[in-house]
């Protein structure tokens, strides 16, 4: 499977200010209790599967903080037979006054979790949970074409197909010799103008480091995640930097804009 990463660590405070709204039941059998949280005093909510013993009887509007959170693949109730999965958030919910902090330092969360076609930011995640950005070897680049409302390829005024983005397909070098591992392909999408600039002179086997990573959850039988990058840089240009902190600083997320 392409981009099968399991879970990504999520920086809870990057989502925004969280207040308790109530209890909800989710999952294939509606048997998983989650906490519904309002975000930044808006009607936007997040569902979080909390730690064992969480007090669901607390008052509406209680301010909480989320630590050691993860985004994982959960079961979709409506179309589970087709193999679809949904992004599920888990973590520890504590009173805002609690002094406990995330196990990982903030700088480890070097990428952005986004949703929708407009790539709306929903918090910061840790790219190292998906792959080592210094371990990627390029083997193919292909275009993705924009489609119209009939599912046909959209064309411009010159009847040329419109390219949405390019797929940069990588093998994780450290896993390439493991014939039992079918999940070592990483596919990263880059906007057309930047892709066309990058492709000049590229060849199979080039080692590239993605910059400005964004992750979106897909959850179908072909892939779990879509990965976007602002650009790609040759590994030898990044060799002096630490793998865990090599990504460019994520764009300001929606939560921070609302502060």
- Could you tell me the strand content as a percent range? 35-45%
Shape: globular
Structural class: mainly beta
Q: Alpha-carbon distance between the termini? A: 39 Å
Reading side by side through the largest sheet, how are the strands ordered? 2-3-4-6-5
Low-confidence stretches: 242-259
- State Rg: 20 Å
For the largest beta-sheet, the strand count, sense and barrel status come to: 5 strands, mixed, barrel
- What is the average per-residue confidence, as pLDDT, rounded to a whole number? 86
Q: H/E order of the elements? A: EEEEEEEEEEEHEEEEHH
Question: How many individual helices?
Answer: 3
Helix content: under 10%
What does this structure look like?
A hairpin with a 5-residue loop joins β2 and β3. The longest helix is centred in the C-terminal third of the chain and has 8 residues. It contains three helices and 15 strands. The protein starts with 7 loop residues before the first strand and ends with a helix. The strands form two sheets. Strands 2-3-4-6-5 form a five-stranded mixed beta barrel. A two-stranded antiparallel sheet has the order 12-15. The chain is 6% helix and 40% strand. With 259 residues, it is mainly β.
Question: What is shown here, in short?
Answer:
The protein has 3 helices and 15 strands. It is mainly β and 259 residues long. The strands form 2 sheets. A 5-stranded mixed barrel has the order 2-3-4-6-5.
Write the layout of secondary structure elements.
Elements: E1 8-11, E2 18-26, E3 32-39, E4 45-49, E5 63-75, E6 85-95, E7 111-115, E8 120-125, E9 136-145, E10 163-172, E11 185-190, H1 192-199, E12 208-211, E13 214-217, E14 225-228, E15 231-234, H2 235-238, H3 254-257
Parallel strand pairs: 4-6, 7-13, 11-14
Antiparallel strand pairs: 1-5, 1-8, 2-3, 2-5, 3-4, 5-6, 7-8, 9-10, 10-11, 12-15, 13-14
């Amino acid at each position: 499977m392409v981009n099968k990463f399991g879970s990504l660590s999520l920086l809870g405070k990057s989502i925004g200010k969280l207040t308790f709204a109530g209890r909800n039941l989710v999952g294939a059998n509606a048997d998983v209790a989650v906490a519904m949280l309002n975000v930044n005093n808006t009607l936007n909510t997040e569902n979080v599967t909390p730690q064992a013993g969480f007090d669901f009887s607390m008052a509406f509007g209680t301010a909480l903080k989320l630590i050691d959170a993860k985004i994982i693949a959960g079961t979709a109730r409506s179309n589970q037979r087709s193999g679809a999965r949904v992004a599920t958030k888990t973590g520890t919910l504590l009173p805002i006054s609690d002094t406990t902090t995330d196990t990982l330092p903030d700088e480890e969360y070097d990428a952005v979790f986004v949703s929708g076609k407009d790539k709306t930011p929903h918090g910061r995640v840790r790219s190292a949970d998906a792959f080592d950005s210094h371990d990627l070897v390029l083997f193919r680049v292909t275009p993705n074409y924009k489609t119209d409302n009939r599912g046909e390829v959209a064309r411009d005024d010159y009847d040329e197909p419109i390219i949405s983005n390019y797929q940069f397909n990588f093998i994780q070098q450290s896993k390439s010799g493991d014939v039992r591992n079918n999940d070592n392909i990483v596919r990263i999408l880059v906007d057309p103008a930047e892709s066309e600039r990058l492709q000049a002179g590229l060849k199979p086997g080039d080692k590239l480091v993605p910059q400005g990573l964004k992750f979106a959850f897909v959850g179908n039988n072909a892939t779990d995640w879509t990965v976007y990058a602002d650009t790609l840089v040759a590994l030898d240009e990044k060799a002096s930097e630490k793998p865990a902190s090599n990504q460019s600083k994520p764009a300001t997320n929606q939560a921070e804009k609302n502060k």
